[in-house]
Amino acid sequence: MSAPLLSVKNLRVTFPTAKGPVDVVRGVSFSLGRERLGIVGESGSGKSMTGRAILKLIRPPGRIAADEMVFDGLDLTRQSERQMRAIRGARISMIMQDPKFSLNPVMTVGEQIAEALQPHRPMPRRQLRDRVLGMLEAVRINEPERVEKLYPHEISGGMGQRVMIAMMLIPEPDLLIADEPTSALDVSVQAQVLDIIEELVTGKGMGLILISHDLNLVARYCDRILVMNGGQIVEQCAARELDKAEHPYTRGLLAAMPRMDEDREELPVLDRSAWAAT
Amino acid sequence: MSAAIQLQDLDISYGPTKVVHGVSLAIAEGESFALVGESGSGKSTILRAISGLAPDWTGAISVQGKPRGHAPDREFAKTCQMVFQDPYGSLHPRKTVDDCLSEPLVVHGIGERDARVKAALAAVGLDQRFRFRYPHQLSGGQRQRVAIARALMLEPRILLLDEPTSALDVSVQAEILNLLKRLRRDQGLTYLLVTHNLPVVSFLCDRLAVMRHGRIVEIAPVEALRRGTLHDAYSRELYAASGGTVRIG
Fold first, then answer.
1. What is the pLDDT, as a whole number, of residue A129?
2. Which chain B residues touch A213 with a CB distance below 8 Å?
3. What pLDDT shows up at residue B244?
4. Average pLDDT for residues B83-110, to the nearest whole number?
5. pLDDT tops 90 at residue A101
6. For residue A272, what pLDDT is reported?
7. Residue A267 belongs to some domain of the structure
8. What mean pLDDT comes out for the span A60-86?
9. Which domains does chain B have, with CATH numbers?
10. Which of A238, A157, A242 is nearest to A192 (CA)?
């Protein structure tokens, strides 16, 4: 494989607290090609912070430190805030969890999607509109001409998340970070949204980082999985080999999930003293 | 066998919009019954109507053989209690665990509060040191334990559970599910559980009803779910979307 799209070495994210600085991400290293990487972990494992740190979206007083954070030859640690703005959206974009809070309630869907593209690639208005309609079609929205004129409160959650995907993919970034893209959606819509992400990501040869607490979902949609706990990566494996995972934390998570054909009288509970996490 | 909860031709409206259409159900004493479906299918609304939070209904609701009226009902609260989805929103932020657990006792004029609060904490597996803490000092799983303890304070026979674990992490969910299963076994409770998570139904319930657009499309024993032999086309769709392998026949 050629040089990776993204290479992160010894990433740390620190927040000051009354009891002294707390590392929420403690020395995370990984590299990513044009593939689908899943990061799983429970709340507080540092998975979302890792995703945000790549885009340098952690606000002070939080601090990011890394030995290396290189995206496509660019050293992200040395980019100024101004330079980062040219990267965010255009080269690396991020889909957030809940469309209700991530879409602007006073702008139509079409305007928002156009706004995601216009600053990066200025173009005539008619051409812009064609791109927006094309993008809405790509995320399988019927009647894009009608939906384009709607406001976020007039569309469903699943449609809102598809609009988010359209916004994030219209500048054709090289890397998409999806942080719990479907946890606010119904199961039946989840699969649809993830299928769209997968189709667009593989179709355009992008890299994908899918952040989720749902092991099975990540295993279904990714090539490789990182399991995080307490700010560290505790296990890396191929998605296909998840059932062969060895770390007690990963095994505990897998066992704690009820199955569709559940016949256990009691679910095994994680023994939190088994490994050194807070 | 007497029914713990009986619903007959239940229609429920929010203002001019009718959200539940003609639901009839009978849940036996000691049974654990699940309502599953997507958001907006009306499953939570049924719980809200039974508990008196959605008073705009027609038809008949009876609990432990007694018909339920539309007004708040103190006696009813003693037999039937509800646990809500989000333990971050359902506990009063400025009341301690002790206040929260004592309140139902004060309202109903029940004595021996100290002993009862201690027993309730022990029943849900919380250490006594949590008794005088505030919700923000507890984790999500601990809060949900407090919410379950609060529901059990009046020693009800029926618990209405509205997505009790969907706001929790997988490992914490396992703890709460085990707790619910143990409580039901120890106290002979009847559960009416609302969820969109089919594996949770498989673990905790005896029967399930699949809902869509405010109507029940199928009622099946949990074995049908475990084996993947649900009949209705929509149930099968839901089953497949939850990662189950559909078997024909």
1. 92
2. 169-170
3. 64
4. 91
5. no
6. 61
7. no
8. 90
9. 3-241 (3.40.50.300)
10. A157
The CA R_g of chain A, rounded to the nearest whole Å, is 20
Token duo for residue A58:
């952690």
Give residue A237's identity as a one-letter amino acid code. Answer: C
Residue A276 pLDDT exceeds 70: no
Residue A38 lies in a domain: yes
Among all residues of chain B, which has the CA nearest to that of A193? Answer: B241
Structural tokens at position B174: 């396992």
Chain B positions contacting chain A at CB under 8 Å are 38-39, 140, 169-175, 177-178, 181, 196-200, 202-203, 225-228, 237-239, 241-244
The CATH number assigned to the domain holding A181 equals 3.40.50.300
**Residue from B201, B202, B190, B151 nearest B65 by CA:** B190
Report strand pairing: B3-14 vs B57-63. Answer: antiparallel
Q: How far is it, in rounded angstroms, from Cα B152 to Cα B52?
A: 18
Q: Is residue A263 pLDDT above 50, yes or no?
A: yes
pLDDT tens, position by position, B64-89: 988 988 888 888 889 999 998 888 88
Tokens representing A235 are 């296990």
Residue at token pair 């020693």 = B155
Chain A residues within an 8 Å CB radius of B228: 260-261
Higher pLDDT among residues A29 and A262, named by residue: A29
Per-range mean pLDDT, top range of A136-145, B70-79, B144-153? B144-153
The b/e string for B150-188 (b: 16+ C-beta within 10 A; e otherwise) is bbbbbebbbbbbbbbbebbbbbbbbbbbbbbbebbeeee
Two tokens, residue B213: 């657009």
- Closest partner residue to B243 (CB to CB) among A42, A260, A266 is A260
Which tens digit of pLDDT belongs to each residue from B57-66? 999 999 998 8
CA distance B232 to B246: 12
Its domain, for residue A248, covers 6-257
